[in-house]
Amino acid sequence: MRRRLTRLGMGLAAVAAAATTLTACGTGGGTTGNGTGPITFASGKDLTGAMPQLLAEWNKLHPDQKVTFIELSASPDDQRNSFVQDLQARSGKYDVMWDDVVWTSEFAAHGWLEPLDKAQVGGPGVLPAAVDTATYQGKMYGAPFMTNSALLYYRSDLVPKPPTTWAELQSDCAIAKAHDMACYVGQFAQYEGLTVNAAEAITSAGGSFLSPDGSKVTVDSPQARAGLQHLVDMFRSGNIPAAALTYQEQESANAFVSGKAMFLANWPYVYTAASAAGSAVQGKFGVAQLPGPSGPGVASLGGIDLGVSAFSQHKQTAKDFVAWMQSESSQRVLVKVMNQASVLTKLYTDPDLTKASPYLPTLQKAELTAVPRPKTPNYNAVSLAIQKNVYAALQGKVSVDAAVKQLAADLQQAISAA
Amino acid sequence: MSVATRPAPPAAAGRRRRARRGRASGWLYAALVTIVLFCLLPFYWMIVTSLKDPKAVFDNSLVPTHPTFLNYAAVFGSQNTFLLALRNSLVIAGSVTALALVFGILAAYALARLHFRGKNLVLGLFLATSMFPGVAILTPLFQLFADLGWIDTYQAMIIPDISFSLPLGIWILASFFRAMPWELEEAARVDGCTKAAAFRLVILPLAVPGVFTTAILVFISAWNEFMIANSMSQTPAAQPVTVAIAQFSGISQYDQPYGTQMAAGVIVTVPLIVLVLIFQRRIVSGLTAGGVK
Amino acid sequence: MSVRTGDSRALVPRASTRRERASGRKDHDGRFAFWLVVPAILVLTVVIGYPVIAALVRSLFSDSIASAPRFVGLDNYFSALWGVNSGKFWDSVGVTYFFAAVTIVLETAIGLGMALVMNQAFRGRGLLRGVVLVPWAVPTAVAAVLWKWSFDPVGIINALTGSHVVWTGSDWPSKAAIVIADTWKTSPFIALLILAGLQIIPGEVHEAAKIDGAGAFQRFRLITLPLVRPALLVAILFRLLDALRMYDLPAILTHGANDTTTLSILVVQATLSELKPGFGGALSTLTFLLIFVTAYAFVRLLGVNAVEAQIGGGRGGNR
Questions:
Q1: Of A78, A89, A254, the CB nearest to B146
Q2: Are residues B211 and B90 both part of a single domain?
Q3: Residue B100 and residue B182 in one domain
Q4: Does the residue B163 lie in any domain?
């Protein structure tokens, strides 16, 4: 009984502690070490088993600064929750974190990430758009590690030349109709993927959501309306099937790989599944850049930046480690074994790599023009606002004009919460 | 009055039941079929899906045309942490059930049988602890347990789970204890038993159906708890099955391994049902005992 | 330790009920009761009490990212109740109560039916109890994924019914999908609780009524229902608490799209997604207050009480 009471006492003490630490929140920093020594690296689930091998490489080279691998869930939301909980508790359990590009600004603004040396991790050999995702208020808070941007998958047996404009896309849809299949599918369920797809339509049409520094709402423009109108028209004409309102990556990829859709906008990972035995489109598809209003459109940039925790005990080792992960030898493992896209420009034309991943040159073209999603510490509130209003417009519940106006108001509220 | 005077000798009860069965059979069997279909059709679909080739998820044929155990192999394959997760779940849910029952029985007995002021307040407080959204509890609790160094330990999941099941357990048990034929306890005390002994020897056996029902509900909710476990357990050493299932991954980070998840769902559900069926006798014996009054 | 004496004084009243004072058992009862109740209270204090107070304190502070949180009084509450966030909040309140009302009515009806059947004597009754438990035993997350794929546009439900409904793509089908999934999952919970209540109804009561010529429906209405009422009400009460905190099913089936954002989803969005612990704390507290008022009204109106209940003849009959 006494022990239980002690526990109660600890609980009460903790209430008091919580009240006092409130005032210390958000200032970042602290008395953490800048030195070298063993560190941990937390990433999303390693589906290829290559990560431990890569880390073993580092450990061989740095016996005094060994890195321990912590494998988190495959779900980005779960990964973020693990990081946020740990960072809020300031435990420094994760020295190096695998951050989705849209988290970098948020984590940096909370003072959770250590600024990195741009000369070391943002040099000329790194894709500029990837460097941009890791930059917050002029400083880099992450080392771009891998990148991602959507491709247009098309049925080369039905469409000889992939569409480059929206008008061509819409006229090609007649072919799909003749074959009794859906014309175009993407990710239109109300979740993060909808933000990606809506951003692609809107930025392709020349619109934007926020100003580059994230301080002003810029969505209330004719360009943004034109971009959204394109998606709404595609839904209304049935060229995007109504079922796509429930599609995430997996469902949309299934529709294409099973031969039920002619065009698919999705990440490069689909290439492997679509080429595999058992795929209905094996040998019958190609990849291209997403179409735009007049020529190739603009893709949204995904990917991972490696961030160093502000609460790490061995920051110097952590910084050296993220730079090493960006080095050519590590990046080759990333492309070859993990089947992901590198952040180093020169690896997109490397014959050894393009043989295994023929989509690399197309992907590079897409990535050279790709635009990060809005960069703001309130990214989640911004993204939720985009999803909600775009979804309502796609469903036909509200007009494009009303959706854009409401979105502008919601975004204003989202960013002013800082 | 003593225990020996209970009416309804088994033979008579049996005769009565047989008579009732004959008359009621028409609507009873219709209702039976409906209930079985309602409960089992979705579960059947789960089993069918778990037996499909992972590539043929949307093959909607009602019987598995080419049954395969690939999904089951996948559950136990790759990193081999599922067996460990099953053990963790067993330890966690078992401890939660045992402790919650002990705490719950004690508290419920006090609430049902003893007289003290503020009883309704205590009952209300127990109830009120089930009114806060789970996530609101999660963040402060994580910080508290992180300070105690409890992250990735069993107690970080057992203690919250106990507190989630206690309110319901106490309420069910208290309402059961209220309905007990307490004159038996008085009789036992007249015979020289202490209050505690009277409770243990006379009342507890009569309370078996209620205790058992509570135990099932508590065990299942602890077995299925996900939110707390997902935060508090970070390595396979402490992860229960619900977290392990969520960690299953498909060929890419975007693919949900539907068939594997269904297979794992079947694997963790079937033992529970078997367990209930084994303990079934306890309910039945409790039932005849309950026919006392 | 000072906590001990403080607590015991609060719980052990100087004067107990009048009846008890007459019997002279009060001191013994009170102290005994305290030691019986205290383990449960301690666990609940650490796990629920402490976090709730922490969330409550935090809800009085601002959510600014760059600077330290400021004390803002009840601003977070005002913003949810009639400020910039009131639209979202009241929409969620409506959605939450809609789901709670519909699912509880359906689940109570189905659960009562199941319990009545399970209480009959027939061969294989034990097996039926196992069967009924299946939906409740399937882990919630797995069940939600099962229903998500069943309600897919090319899933089994459309295939079986020959329809082309995009279930999770518009408002009412989404709500129907969530209600169906929840009803399947939770009816057994109610059934089990009612069954436990039915088991303490002595069979003789039914027999006697039958001999007096009461029909099946009459026996149900006049005997079974009143006797099982306490168990039924406790079951509904706890379903109410859970249904008003519904999270998993809408989160997995629709992500809160199509007008299915329940209060819990809103709390998770504010606390975990948007990292606004102050506003999230206020939403949690408001949710708590709504549930509290609802449960209180339920208990008052219907007289649910685990200790004063009139089960099986109730307190009067036993004394």
A1: A89
A2: yes
A3: yes
A4: yes
Residues facing residue A292 across a β-bridge: A165, A295
Q: Angle, nearest 10°, between helix axes C125-137 and C171-198?
A: 140
Integer Rg of chain B from CA: 24
The CATH H-level superfamily of A18-148+303-371 is: Periplasmic binding protein-like II (3.40.190.10)
Residue ranges making up the domain that contains B51: 10-70
C2, C5, C150, C255, best to mutate vs chain A, most A CBs in 10 Å: C255
**Cα dist from A312 to A36, A60, A97, A112, C48, whole Å:** 10, 22, 11, 10, 31
Cβ A232 vs Cβ A393: under 8 Å: yes
pLDDT at A6 over 50: no
Residue C279 in tokens: 């506003």
- Whether C39 is covered by a domain: the verdict is no
CB pair distance less than 8 Å for C196 and B39? no
Average pLDDT over residues C246-265: 92
Q: What is the pLDDT of residues B113-162, one digit of tens each?
A: 888 888 888 888 888 888 988 888 888 888 889 888 898 899 999 999 99
ipTM of the complex: 0.84
- Position A199 pLDDT exceeds 80: yes
More confidently predicted of A142 and C220: A142
Tell me which architecture the domain covering A150-299+374-416 has in CATH: 3-Layer(aba) Sandwich (3.40)
What is the domain range of residue C161?
88-318
- Read off the pLDDT of residues A37-47 as tens digits, 9 standing for 90 and up: 999 999 988 88
Q: Tokens representing C197?
A: 């209540």
What's the CA angle centered on B241, arms B235 and B243, to 5 degrees? Answer: 55
User: What DSSP string runs through C104-169?
Assistant: HHHHHHHHHHHHHHHTS--TTHHHHHHHHHHHHHS-HHHHHHHHHHHTSTTSHHHHHHT----GGG
Chain C segment 209-268 residues within 8 A of A by beta carbon are: 254-258
Q: Which residue of C has its CA nearest to B62?
A: C156
B282 vs C: CB within 8 A: no
